[in-house]
Structures are given as C-alpha cells and as structure tokens.
Write a structure and sequence with these properties.
Helix content is about 50%, strand content about 5%. It is mainly alpha-helical. The strands form three sheets. The chain has a four-stranded mixed sheet with strand order 3-2-5-6, with helices on one face. A two-stranded antiparallel sheet has the order 1-4. Strands 7-8 form a two-stranded antiparallel ribbon.
C-alpha cells in the first residue's frame, strides 16, 4: 500500500487552560482574606477598578454604570468634559440651567473678583457649616488629615489596641531583674532562643555549655533561676518537670505528690491501686491530688501570641424564614466591593494615546467582575444544595446529620466534583446550630441494619460520645457493648471502628473509665 500525504478539514472542541481560566479557578477556592488581598492588588494595578464605598448600592454593576452615565450626561450638558465624573454636578440639567449659570454675563467678573479679593468663607462659622466633603473618600482611612476627614475628632480603635506580647518578649523583660550578671544573661538569652511555642526547653545543656564556653553547672544554675519566671512551668524539659515547677510555686510539692508526678504513665492508665501503694495515700487523697494536677497548665507558653490569627467570616448565612423553610443568603460583609468605571475609561481614552493599555485594563476589569459574580453564584448553588440535603440536621441537631459526598451535590447542581471541592474549601456557613465549615456536612456513610438508610459518621461519633457520657460506674460500656447498642439502633459498625472513633475523641478505654468512675463514686463526687 503506497503512502501519500492528504489534507483533511476536522472540527473539534477542546478546553484550553488559559491564564484567566486558571485565575478564575483560584478565585473559587480563595478565602475571604486571600480574596481581599488579590482584589487590592488588582485595584492598585488597574486604574479602571475601584472599591465601592459602604453607602453605595451594590445590587449590580449595571446600576453603577448607569450612575456614571448620568454623571457623564450632566457634565456634557454643563459644558464640562464628558469624563469628569467626580464632580457632583446638576443631574439632568438642561439648556436653561447651563445658560443661567455657566454662560451668564457676570461669570468672568465673578471669577476675577474672587481671585483678586480672595473671598473664601470656608473657615467662617465652621461650627454651623455643613460637613465638608472629602476630596477622595476612598482614602479617608489612610489620610485622616485631608479635608472632610475630621482629623482630631474621629478616633481609630486600632490606635488603642495593645500590641501582642510574645513569650520571648515577656521573658526578656524579667531576666534583667533575676540575673544581674552579664554572663548569666548571655546564657539565659541562649536558652530563651531554644524555647518552643509551648514554653518547653528543647536544648542539651552540655552542648549549650560547650558552645558558650561555660560549665554545665553554671548553665543549670541559670536554668533553675529561669524556671522561677512567669508563666509558671516555663523552661521545663518534660511534662513531669513542668507540673513539678508549678506545684513548687504553690507549695504543694510534697513527697506523695512527687511520686505521683514521677508515675504519670500510671495516672494515664487509671491504675489507681498501684498509685495508692506508691504514694501511700487513700482514694480520697489521691483524687484530691488528681484534681490539683488538672488545674495546672501543661503548656505554659500557649497563652502568648505566636502568629497572626485570622478571624473567620461566614460566607453563607442560613436562617429560618416565615414559611418554615430555610433562607440561604450570601454574607454581604464577605462580598468584595469592586466596581468598573466605564465613564472614566471613556473620558481617558479620548485624550490618552495608549489605547492598547486601556483596552487591556478594561478587559481585565470586566473579567474580574464576571469571575467574582460567577464565584458568588457557585457558592450560593452549593450552599443551597447542602441546606436542602441537611435539613434534618438544622432542625434536630447532629444526630440527624445525613451522609453526603461531593458527587451527590455535584450531580444535583450539574457541576463537576472538583468545582464543589474548591467551593467547600475554607468556606463557612453560619446556621442556627452554629458556625460550620462547608466540608463538615460531607461525611462518609455507615451501613444500616437490614438495608436501611445509611448514617453519617459524624452522627455515629456523636452517639458514641453520648453513650459513654451517660454510662454509670457499675455499668461501663465496653466497645462490644457499644457495638450491640448501636446495632439495636439500626447502625451496623465493627468493634475496631468503634475503638478508632473512641480514640480519635480522646476517650479512654472501658477499663480506665471504670477505675476512674468507681473511685469518684466512692467519695461521692460522681
């Protein structure tokens, strides 16, 4: 068979991952804080984008464009350039108004007299005058001294907020009063630099002494002094030492408490019989010692700020409506306030020579507004479907949380699973039951007995937690008992799964719970 070259005409469709499409996908999974940062960068680069003021109606971009068109018509009617949309001119002014005001015979004389006599009555009777309009309202937060900013009368609460003090700063303020010698302060500063976020010392004293050219005895002496600083328990090298430091400062570190601290692994296993024999106390004294340990802080450095904490702002607000259904709304505080100034583009393009740059800016601005609008609609679709699927949870609580996966929601709103996954990442919904991440409503399904409806894994964990919290000291439930109880309730679950859920919720085993509850029952504290 001979080979030959031929020409074919074929029509096909393909999805091209353009840079704008990639940015649209990234916008979908951005948090509120990340989205505001991205929009601020775009507004800084694009002269056609601007932030909307808080008192401006954000019902749609068309209303803003219509407003700009009204300003443009007013400017043209008044004899001003069409692009000057910042002057509060006379809306809808006609020819009579233009001739009476702008083209009167005394206009030139009034301007000349004003310039020569410097007649400015702006500072006369300032208390009775109306508030002066700011030249650039969008910059009031940055330039409070501009006209209209009311400098000296308004206060910014951020100016009165105390700065966050880190653990190292807090300790460095105390070291000069405890260690007057400069050599000791050098050792102390080296030890402070090796503290972790919880306040524990993660350093080898021998290596520290060798590095600083000192003896290990001097390093230990400085360390003993540092362990007396605030917060109590700081500079500890283990949990036992941290608790011992705090008990010494409370003058409660007696021989019995010392032996209890040395055997924390027995306390974790609830081996009260061995602890009573080692400490030489009865059950009542042992329980009192355990109550004192519970009041201690195992992480003394956790109370200090270690980083910037981001406040969670709900993207969706769900509240009951009058007809008994649920009203799902986008949080207006989480919506980005950005607008496109079409009139500014029209006015600048008449005088500017760089039409390609302006056209690109207009294209990018329109793309951003469309992407933000599409993002809001997609979040609304996903949230509405989640509320429809989890209606029983909103009414009755976590016991009625239904199993749900991404495919179910994606099929219902006719979108891809990856889109639903991006929407539910780092997005939060405020409901009458509390604030939840959208991914909270997606849980695996637990098989039901005899082919019944499946149960949500989160609802099953909640049932296990309730069963254990309601058990009595004489009838502590084992994992097998929990399996049987759940089976009677229509939930088919293996014993190893119950053990896995229990350990994930930090619930001890039945043997440990039985020891603790019986000991508490004997002293009448249960």
């Amino acid at each position: 068979m001979a080979l030959s070259a031929n020409l074919f005409l074929r029509q096909s469709q393909s999805l091209v991952m353009t840079p704008q499409l990639m940015q649209s996908i990234q916008l979908l999974q951005m948090t509120h804080f990340e989205l505001n940062q991205f929009i601020a960068q775009e507004v800084e680069k694009n002269p056609l984008l601007e932030f909307a003021s808080n008192d401006e109606d954000l019902g749609g971009y068309g209303e803003r464009e219509a407003k700009d068109e009204r300003f443009e018509m007013a400017g043209e009617t008044a004899g001003e350039p069409a692009g000057d949309t910042r002057n509060d001119g006379f809306e809808g002014g006609g020819d009579d108004l233009a001739s009476d005001w702008y083209e009167s015979d005394n206009t030139g004389h009034a301007d000349r007299l004003s310039n020569e006599l410097d007649t400015n009555f702006g500072n006369v009777f300032s208390d009775d005058a109306s508030p002066q309009r700011a030249d650039a309202p969008e910059l009031l937060s940055q330039w409070k001294s501009m006209p209209g900013g009311e400098a000296g009368e308004s206060y910014d609460l951020d100016d009165f907020v105390a700065g966050q003090v880190s653990l190292r700063d807090h300790l460095n303020e105390q070291i000069p009063f405890s260690l007057p010698a400069m050599g000791d302060r050098l050792i102390a500063q080296h030890l402070v630099d090796q503290l972790d976020d919880t306040g524990y010392l993660r350093a080898d004293l021998s290596e520290t002494a060798e590095r600083l050219g000192s003896t290990i005895g001097e390093v230990e002496r400085v360390l003993n002094t540092l362990q007396l600083l605030d917060p109590p328990g700081v500079f500890a090298r283990s949990l036992s030492e941290c608790l011992a430091i705090q008990l010494r400062q409370k003058d409660r570190f007696d021989p019995a408490m010392e032996r209890l601290i040395e055997n924390l692994e027995l306390l974790a296993r609830r081996d009260f019989a061995t602890l009573k024999r080692l400490c030489g106390v009865d059950e009542e004294d042992l329980l009192d010692m355990m109550a004192e340990i519970r009041q201690l802080n195992p992480k003394p450095g956790s109370g200090f700020e270690t980083g910037i904490s981001e406040a969670i702002m709900p993207d969706i607000v769900v509240r009951p409506s009058a007809d008994g259904s649920w009203l799902v709304e986008l949080n207006p505080d989480a919506l980005p306030r950005v607008l496109v100034s079409q009139s500014y583009f029209a006015s600048v393009s008449k005088t500017s020579q760089d039409h390609a740059f302006l056209s690109e800016c207009l294209q990018n601005a329109n793309w951003l507004t469309r992407s933000l609008d599409q993002r809001a609609k997609t979040i609304m679709k996903v949230a509405s479907e989640i509320v429809r699927q989890q209606d029983a949870f909103l009414i009755n609580g976590v016991d009625h949380l239904r199993p749900l996966n991404l495919k179910t929601v994606a099929d219902a709103i006719k979108m891809h699973e990856s889109t639903v996954s991006r929407v539910t990442s780092n997005k939060y919904m405020l409901t009458p039951r509390g604030l939840f991440e959208l991914k909270y409503f997606f849980t695996v399904s637990i098989n039901a007995v005899e082919g019944g409806d499946g149960h949500s894994a989160e609802a099953v964990r909640h049932k296990i937690r309730l069963l254990i919290s309601n058990e009595s000291p004489n009838a502590v439930l084992s994992d097998d008992d929990i399996v049987d109880t759940l089976k009677k309730g229509g939930i088919e679950l293996a014993r190893r799964t119950v053990a896995k859920y229990r350990e994930a919720m930090n619930i001890p085993s039945s043997v440990q719970r039985r020891r603790e509850k019986r000991a508490l029952a004997k002293v009448g504290s249960f």
